[in-house]
Amino acid sequence: MDYKNEISDIDRSIHRLHMKYSFLQFKEMDIHPGQIAMLSTLYDNQGCTQSDMAKEHGVSCATVGVSVKRLEKAGLLKKSTDEYDMRTTRLELTDKGEKYAVMAKAVVDKINDVKMRGFSKQELIQYYGFLKRIKLNLETTIEEGKDN
Questions:
Q1: Does residue 88 sit in helix, strand or coil?
Q2: What are the b/e assignments for 99-131, b being 16+ CB within 10 Å?
Q3: pTM for this one?
């Protein structure tokens, strides 16, 4: 058995199921699961910029811009000009956005509880270690510009 390919297949399947379950959980809130991380970041960092957000999430400023527009349209965040640098736009959650961020954290906790159901603490620690190594392998390879 080619475990690397089997693991990769399961990893993709888990990601799809995670997103499907997330969509079901967030359906009533009328927000895309991909925007939850932004709400959480804004909740913890009121007044950050779009480029701060892009760096935090490893995406382009344009990608953040699309989400910002959607969240702003939904009344979850507001933009304001920095008082010291008129070229800088700050992002802040509205009262509704703060409420949604708190609700979203509860939903994310529920999703994580479902995903990790039945695992012992030792198994979770081991799984965490595996995931950190995989992440480090990918980051190191990307940073070094390697092909392998």
A1: coil
A2: ebbebbeebbeebeeeeeeeeeeeeeeeeeeee
A3: 0.75
